Amino acid sequence: SAVISQKPSRDICQRGTSLTIQCQVDSQVTMMFWYRQQPGQSLTLIATANQGSEATYESGFVIDKFPISRPNLTFSTLTVSNMSPEDSSIYLCSVGQVKGADTQYFGPGTRLTVL
Amino acid sequence: LAKTTQPISMDSYEGQEVNITCSHNNIATNDYITWYQQFPSQGPRFIIQGYKTKVTNEVASLFIPADRKSSTLSLPRVSLSDTAVYYCLVRGGSTLGRLYFGRGTQLTVWP
Questions:
Q1: How far apart are alpha carbons A68 and A56 in whole angstroms?
Q2: Mind telling me how many Å the CA of A57 is from chain B's nearest CA?
Q3: Which residues of chain A have pLDDT under 70?
């Protein structure tokens, strides 16, 4: 398995500002993913962040709005830029292929409220 | 990518067996069926995965008929702590490890 931590766990931000969310894993993993879960909704994949390559964004998400860094095999950041109230969501990171297993492990999430 | 359809909500009582069925009519040959569980204020947690027939682990069983167009997650003797959202997902080579979540099934277990 993998233990994933996220910082901050929650934040309240003003519109127009940016927030960087950190994701730390206790083991080296190749595949990391970022998801968004809007209130009362399911999870939506934002992007895939594999170490050594540029992040791959899903339809509807762009790098200017959600820049991602993946400096090493245990860490990634997601920035939510120029925030608006519509960005209020829970942001989750996950990791895949831990020790070759198909299972994905999810972090606890970052609850973001934009005023 | 195969779309999944599952009931929005289900209710059960403690000690009962719960079966949640998911349809995935367009599943591809190399796709697997995966189920995740999510409690409030937590990230999803892997429950079980299968390709065909039956898979069982310490938490649940997964039944997949021969045509693989549907699957049933079976939770034996549920307790209050099994109240959660259950997601059925189809994943395979085309998704490259990515997970695409549907709406999920809110299971509520009553005393």
A1: 10
A2: 11
A3: 97-101
